[in-house]
Amino acid sequence: MASFSAGRLLCGLILVFSVASMQAAERSIEEVVVWGSEVDQRFASPNPISILDQEDFRSINVATTEDVVKYEPSLVVRRRFIGDSNGVVGMRGSNMFQTSRSMVFADGVPLHYLLQSRWNGAPRWTMVSASEIAQVNILYGPFSAEYSGNAMGGVVEIETAIPQQEEFHVDSSYFSQNFDAYGFDDTVSGFKSFVSYGNKIGDTSFYFSVNRLENESQPQTFRFGGASNASNPTPVSGAIVANDERGRSRHWFMDTGVVDTLTNNYKFKLGHDFGAWSALLNVAYEDRNGVTDSGNSYVSDGAGNPVYRGDVIQDGVRFSVPASRFSTSDLERRSLSAGLRLRGQLTDSIELEANLSHFAVLRDENRRSRSHPDDPAHTLSGQVADFGDTGWDTAEVKLYFDDLGVEGLGLVAGLRQESYELNFDVYGSNNYLAGTKDFYTSRSGGETSILAAFAQFDWQFAENWDASFGLRWEDFESKNGYFDDDDPASPTFDLTAVPGRSTTKSSPKFSLGYSPSGPWSFRYSVAKAYRFPIVEELFSQWEAFNAISVANPGFEPEDGLHHNLMAEREVPGGYLRINYFTETIDDVIESQTTTLDNGVSLRTFLPVDEIETSGLEFVANVDELFLANLDVRFNAVYTDSEIVKNLPNPGIEGNVYPRMPRWRGNLLATYRLAEHWDVGLNYQYASDSFGRTDNSDREDNVYGAQDAYSRLGLKSTYHLSNGLSLGFGIDNVSDEVAYVAHPWPGRSFYFNLAYDL
Predict the structure, then answer these.
(1) Parallel, antiparallel or unpaired: strands 501-514 and 296-297
(2) pTM above the 0.85 mark?
C-alpha cells in the first residue's frame, strides 16, 4: 500500500533490533515484569480506571480474550459464540456497534479495527491469546489527551508478561452447549489448545506461543418469508409461526445452521534491555477460517422434500422462500500484526517512549453460493468478496517530563501518526467453490490519515489537590476514495472517484482531584473529543446479491462533550466507587439495516444530530469481603441515552438510543476452599433495549430483538503440586435463550487442563 511507509520503516527497525538483541550478555532477573507499568503509574489518571490481574480471572470461564474484560463496569462485549470474529465492544454511552468509539491495545499494539463498523469493526482479539494476559487496564472516556476521540467510550490496555526466566505453559479446553430455538435443537462443541515457551538469556527475553481454537456455534440467523402474491404457490408445512422483533407475525422457514470456525494464532515477542533503555518487539499472525454450509429448511412440500426456494403457501398464508437465504459461506482470513515499543531515559527527568505498529490483511476472502447445495436448482454460481490492500500503520513518540521547575508539576507530550486503507471488491463467480473471480459486481475503498499532537500537564499543586490540563490537536484527511458506477455499455468496470477532505480539530481536557485526609477521594473530569469517520463510513458502497451498503463521503466528525464525577472510598481489601457521567455527542454516525421485500438487506449510514447520555455507575472491588477467603468484584450502572435532536427525521426525537440498556450489572466472586482449590461465581445482567432508532422493535425473546438477559456461571480450578491444574465451569446455568439480534449461547460446559513448568 502506498500509504504504508511506516510499515516499511517498522520492518527495517525490526531487523536492526533483532540483530542487536541477540548480542546481549547474560544477566539473571527473577521477577516477572509487565512492560510499561512504571510509566502508567507516573501521574494520576484523569480517567476512571479499572485494573484486572490474573487473580481476577479465576472465576471467569476464559476461552478467548474477550472473556477477560466482559464483566467490567459499563462495558459489553457481544461475542455470540466462542470463536466469533465479530466480538464487538461497547463502553459507557457508546453501544456495541459503535466500534470506532472504543480502543483496544495489546502491549501497545492497536487491536481496534478502525476500518469498518458494526459487526465488521470488532477488535482483532485473536492477536493476543487469553492464556498470555498478565494485566488489563480499562480507562473510561476520552479524558486523557494521549488518546484520540476513538476513546469516547474508553480504552482497553492489555499487557502480557515479559519472561524473566525459562517458562513453559500448555493448556487445553473443551466446551460444549446444547441450543434449542425455532427449528434447531442440537449440541455443538469445540476445543482450544495453547502452548508457549519463554526465557531470558542475559538482557534478552523471548517468547513464542501457538493458540488453536476450533468450535461449532449455534445457528446465528433465522429467516422468515417475505410477502408473495404468486398465483400458484407450492403447498408446504413446517414453517414456524411467530412474531418478529417488531411484533409482526411471520413464517420462519430456516436457520443458517452450525458455524464451523478454526483459528490459529502464532505469537513471537522479543525484549531487550540495554542500559537505561528497553525495547519490545511483537509479531502476531492469525489464520482464521469460518464455514457456514448447513442451513436447515423447516418447510417441506407434500412429498416431504425440503423446500429451498420459491413461492409457497401454508395454512392459507402465502410467502416467499428466497434461495439466497440458504447461501453457504466460506471465509478465509489471514492477518499480520507487528509492533515495536522503545523506552528509555534521555536525562534524569526526561523519558522517551516510542511505539510503531503495522497491521496488514494478507488475505480476507469470503466465497458464497447463491443457494443451498441440496437445492435441486443449485449451481456453482456465486460470489467472492475480497479485501485488497487493507490495513493500517501507526507511529507515536511521547516524552515524559518529571522536573519542570515547579514542585509537583509533570508533563507528557507527543506526536502520533495513523494511516488507514481499505479496498473491497465483490466478484461474480461461475464457481464459488473454486473461488473464481469472473467479473466485478462492486468495488469501493479509500484512505484516511490522522496526524495528532498532544500535551498534558499534571500538577500536584497542594497536599490534597491535583489537576491536569490537556490539549489534543488533530489533522484528519481522507483521500483516494472510490466506488463503482458501472455503465453496462462501457467495456471496463467504471469507478467514481470521491473527492478528498481534510479538517483540523482541537480537544481540550481538564481534571481536578481532591483527596482529603482519610479514605475518600474525589475527581471531576471534562473533555472535548472528536471522532473522525472511518473508511467504510466514507467510501464503502457496494451491492451483492443479498446485501446493499450505502456510504456517505460527506460525514462530519462526531463532536462530543464528556463529563465524569467520581467519588471513591478505600475499604479494607479494596475500594467502593461511584461515577456520574454525562456526554453530549453531535453529528452521530449511525448505521441502520432493513430487509427489503425481496430478502435483500439494505444498510445505510446516516447522521443523527444529537445524542445525550447520562449514567450512574457503582463499583465494589473488595478482597476478603465478609469471609477471609472471599474476593468480590461487583458493578452496576444505570444509563439513560436519548436522541434529543434530529432534523432530517424529527419523529425519532425523544427515543432511546439503540442497543443501550437502562441497567447493566456484573458480579465475579471467588472463594478459596484451600490453598490450591478455588471456586467462583460469575453473573451478567442487562435490561432490554432497542435495535432501531424508531424504537419499533419491542418484541422480546425473538430473533432480531435486543433482549434482557440474566446469565449465571460457575467456575472451579484445582492446582496440583506437580504444575497441573484442572478446571470445570458452566456458563448460563439456567439455559436462558435470549437475543442480542443474534442468539446468545445456551448452557455451556467447560473442561480445562493446564500445565506449567
Answers:
(1) unpaired
(2) yes
Q: How confident is the model at residue 10 (pLDDT cuts 50, 70, 90)?
A: very low
Q: What are 202's three cell numbers?
A: 542475559
Give the whole-angstrom CA distance, residue 139 versus residue 55: 20
C-alpha cell at 515: 483527596
Phi/psi class of residue 391: alpha, beta or left (left: φ > 0; alpha: ψ in -120 to 50)? Answer: left
pLDDT at 487: 82
How many H-runs (helices) and E-runs (strands) does the chain carry? Answer: 4, 44
* DSSP symbol at 100: G
Show the cell assigned to 291: 464455514
- Residue position matching grid coordinates 439503540: 658
CATH 2.40.170.20 residue ranges in the chain? 5-221+256-293+328-756
**Residue tagged 495453547 (cell numbers):** 194
Q: Average pLDDT in the 436-445 region?
A: 92
Residues in contact with 410: Cβ distance below 8 Å, sequence separation at least 6, in sequence order: 42, 43, 400, 401, 402, 404, 457, 458, 459
Beta strand residue intervals within 163-276, DSSP E: 167-181, 184-201, 204-217, 222-224, 226-227, 234-235, 240-243, 249-255, 259-274
CB 174 within 8 A of CB 189: yes
Three-class DSSP category at 556 = coil
pLDDT tens for 477-516 read 999 999 888 788 888 888 889 888 999 999 999 999 999 9
* Measured distance CA(578)–CA(582) in Å, rounded: 13
Chain CA centroid to CA 718, Å = 31
User: Between these two residues, 114 and 20, which has the higher pLDDT value?
Assistant: 114
CATH class of 5-221+256-293+328-756: mainly beta
Please give the share of the chain, as a percent, with pLDDT higher than 70.
Answer: 91
Of the candidates 750, 733, 707, 704, the one whose C-alpha atom is nearest the C-alpha of residue 192 is: 750
Would you state the pLDDT for residue 38? 47
pLDDT, one tens digit per residue, over 218-228 is 999 999 998 88
Alpha helical stretches, state H, 472-577: 535-539
**Which run of H or E residues covers position 748?**
strand 748-756
Nearest to 24 by CA among 267, 352, 279, 268: 279
pLDDT tens digits along 700-717: 999 999 999 999 999 999
